[in-house]
Amino acid sequence: xxxxxxxxxxxxxxxxxxxxxxxxxxxxxxxxxxxxxxxxxxxxxxxxxxxxxxxxxxxxxxxxxxxxxxxxxxxxxxxxxxxxxxxxxxxxxxxxxxxxxxxxxxxxxxxxxxxxxxxxxxxxxxxxxxxxxxxxxxxxxxxxxxxxxxxxxxxxxxxxxxxxxxxxxxxxxxxxxxxxxxxxxxxxxxxxxxxxxxxxxxxxxxxxxxxxxxxxxxxxxxxxxxxxxxxxxxxxxxxxxxxxxxxxxxxxxxxxxxxxxxxxxxxxxxxxxxxxxxxxxxxxxxxx
Length: 288
Description:
Layout: E1 2-9, H1 15-45, H2 48-72, H3 79-117, H4 125-152, H5 155-186, H6 195-222, E2 224-226, H7 229-240, E3 247-256, E4 259-267, H8 274-287
Antiparallel strand pairs: 1-4, 2-3, 3-4
Helix pairs in contact: 1-2, 1-4, 2-3, 2-5, 2-6, 3-6, 4-5, 5-6
């Protein structure tokens, strides 16, 4: 007697994953608040670098939102649900990525135009203070998520934390640009007036890069990727240990977005009842 089984491998909701979800929400809300703060001060202080950094924080929030969706999607009910969720996520990611690329190009164009036409307004000093505060806040978020990731042994959470650390680079660029422009005003060095716009151009490049990476990940989610022989062998051994399984006739495992989908055929004793065979199949799914 043979049984065909399809299962989607995922984790169970535990206290650790609740903490990971909280950390993801913290990243989303934190970056949105930072974006609003920087955007408002950039407008008041006439800083192109700080405005670009505010847009970059929006892209950071989108990245954290993707991580949050990944956590939420780690417990699908079945393969069709997994496929549907991945399709929706990838389409949304491509749309968001396109917005970031367009926004990055627009910010870059404005920065270039400003440098060509000549800078007429220097950022106010409080733009510099705002960037310093932002850097400290980003570092605090990084440390919290990194420690939580280490405690949970979660590579995805650690990777998300490292994004906070890398995001500091855009704020450091804004800090350098604003400080350079202010120094240029103080020492009457007109060559430094363009530092703010130059920093804005660099951050615009980072935004375009973020959009490109997000689009690549979205495309990757839509593609199936077969598991390595080592991982497939581990699944095979797990199935063979289940009581009542005589032989594993076929096992195909593939990654699809956040999930691993396994299709397999097993042989059981032909003299047992259908109900007993069904129970063995359920045991196999449970073990996987």
